[in-house]
Amino acid sequence: MQLHEEKREPLFSLGVGEVHNFKISPSAKAFDMMTGKNLYKNVEDAVVRELLANAYDAMVDAGRGHIPCEVHLPNVLEPWLEFKDTGVGLPHTAIGNVFTVLFESTKTTSNKIIGCKGLGCKSPFGISD
Questions:
Q1: DSSP string of the chain, one letter each residue
Q2: What residues have CB less than 8 Å from 11, skipping those under 6 apart?
Q3: Contact 38, 122 (CB under 8 A)
Q4: Does the N terminus or the C terminus of the chain have fewer Cβ atoms within 10 A?
Q5: Which pTM does this prediction carry?
């Protein structure tokens, strides 16, 4: 889903001639409030949905959207959840600039993929750090 930036009028006015826009202060508190347990009603379901959507998006970007990703469900002998795709992936250099920044996304210019808001990949922080 492609997002379109809109130019907006100032959101807040303090008296005559003094205008301010609302903004978010970048902090660990803001990151915590906008990820996982504070953002989703059912965090576990959200993590699965968001990670599967990201795997699908990666496959679409690679031209392989028709191929399903692999899912490993936890069991007694292998107690982990894993999603494996053969998509384009996120370059190592983008980890610090995209994965760790709220509302930052590499998907804002395409209508072929699901994600674009820069929050979904942070959902696992609701159940683990």
A1: ----------SEE-SSS-EE------SHHHHHHTSGGGT-SSHHHHHHHHHHHHHHHHHHHTT-TTSPPEEE---SSS---EEE--S----HHHIIIIITSTT--S-TT-SSSS--SS-GGGGGGGT--
A2: 20, 21, 22
A3: no
A4: C
A5: 0.75
Rounded to whole angstroms, the Cα distance separating 19 from 2 reads: 30
pLDDT in tens, 97-116: 888 888 888 888 888 888 88
* Residues 106 and 3: beta-carbon distance below 8 Å: no
pLDDT at 7 over 70: no
